[in-house]
Amino acid sequence: MSYRGKYIPDKSDFYQLSRSKVDYFLNCPRCFYLDRRLGVGQPPGFPFNLNSAVDNLLKNEFDYYRNIKEPHPYIKRLGLNAIPFQHENLDKWRNNFSGVVYQHEKLKLHLFGAVDDIWINLDSNELIVVDYKSTSKNSEINLDADWQIGYKRQMEFYQYLLRNNGFKVSNIGYFVYCNGMKNKERFDEKLDFEISLLDYTGDDSWIEKTLSDLIDLLKQESVPKHTENCDYCKYQLKTIPYS
Ligand code: SF4
To answer: 2-238, which class in CATH?
Structure first.
C-alpha cells in the first residue's frame, strides 16, 4: 500500500514521492515542507506544450528504431554500439503518473520518475538513460549553467531508480538537446531544429543521504527557514499587505 498527498509521520504505508519533489526539497526545504507536509504547494506553472510536442515526436522516432532493433542515427553519430531498449514496462516507465518505481523499504518511500528513453549498450549490456530537452537560443548548447544542476540530478535519479530495479546502468547518460532555430528569414509554418547530443557522467551517491534528510524534515513539527535570495520569498516579504 502507498499513499500520496500530504506526508503523515505516523503512517506505516509507503509514501509516494516523485523525482521532481526530491529536487524541490533540494531547492528549498521550506517550500517542500509547506507542500508535502502541510499541503500548501506553490501555484502550478503553465504546461510547455511545444516541448511536449518535440518529446512526443522524438519518442515516436526512437520507437520506430526500437521496433526494428536498429540504432537510431543519433546513436550511430555517437559511435555507440547501442539500440533503444525494449521492455514490457517501458510505457509505464515513460508515463508521468507511474514512472520507474523503487520502494525504499527503510524510509518507507515509494519513489518514482518518468524517463524519456532508455538505450542498451550491446557491448556491456548496460542501460543508458536518455533525456530529451528542447530550447531555442543562439548561444552554445551545453550543461554549464547553474540552473542545469536540476537536469543532472534528474539523470542521476533515473539511474538510481533503474539500478534499484536490478538493472546494470551506465554512469554515462545522454541529453538529446533540440534547439529551435529562430533566425530564419521566414516561418513558413515550420520550425527547424539543430540537435546536440550531450553526454553526462552521473553520480547518484547524493541520493540516499538526501532521502534520509528529507524524511527527517517531514517528520519534524516546525516549518524550516526560507532560502536566501528566493524571488518568491523576497516578493512576499516586501509586499505591503492590503488593509
Ligand atoms: S524561499 Fe520561500 S518562496 Fe522561495 S522556495 Fe523557499 S519557501 Fe518557497
So the answer is: alpha beta
